[in-house]
Amino acid sequence: MEAQRKSDIGFFTGVPWYLGDLSPVIPRYHLVPPAIGPIFRYNINMHNAVRAHGIFYTLSGSNENFHGGEADFQSSFVDLGLDFEFNWWPYKSADRKAKYSPYVSAGLGYSLNYTGNSVSHLYLPFGGGFKANLGKRMSGGIEVTMRKTFNDMIDGYSNMGGEAVQSPVGNNDWYFFSGVFLTYKIFNYREECPTYD
């Protein structure tokens, strides 16, 4: 029962942003369906947690002046990952005292492409956000995460910057999620309820 009392389950939804060969300066948003998917969090203690997710999302981009012509892409993915979260302040789901905190996160993931000309890819996610209790069992938050890929074919165009960016560490393709999440705490209510302290 200890694992259950420390676990949250819920979903994430947000806006995907693309930064790559077709948008090399700032992330650009193109009209695509919102990213959405389930999340599961295991709270190790008040400062540390591990979160798994499976997010469905679509990336899209275009550039009318790309090397003298027009180029665009749109591809859909399933994002599977595991993140470590560090809460700056003590935080515990469904707790009346430690009820909110900013946090940072980092981890490892793999994104499976199922439509479009993109490729499946390994990525490193990192970012941060703010989480808070919304009731006796509910919690939620906002977050922004960046994903550094290990492949330059997310947009279907490989290393258009030349030989200088041929390294997997120096490729051009990134993507971002800005969104919100809502979770439900799974626990033994009798043991957590203050009446039984």
Structure, described:
This protein is mainly beta and 197 residues long. It has one domain (2-196): Porin (Beta Barrel). 4% of the residues lie in helices and 61% in strands. The protein has two helices and nine strands; from the N terminus they run H-E-E-E-E-E-E-E-E-E-H. A hairpin with a 2-residue loop joins strand 4 (48-66) and strand 5.
Q: Given the structure, what is the number of helices?
A: 2
The profile of the biggest β sheet is: 8 strands, antiparallel, barrel
Task: Count up the domains.
Answer: 1
Radius of gyration: 19 Å
Structural class: mainly beta
What series of H and E elements makes up the topology? HEEEEEEEEEH
In CATH, the architecture is: Beta Barrel
Molecular shape: elongated
Q: What's the end-to-end separation, in Å? A: 17 Å
The average pLDDT score comes to 84
Order of strands across the widest beta sheet? Answer: 1-3-4-5-6-7-8-9
Task: Please mark out the parts with pLDDT under 50 across 5 or more consecutive residues, or reply none.
Answer: 162-169
Beta percentage is: over 45%
DSSP strand count:
9
Indicate the CATH topology. Answer: Porin
CATH level-1 class: Mainly Beta
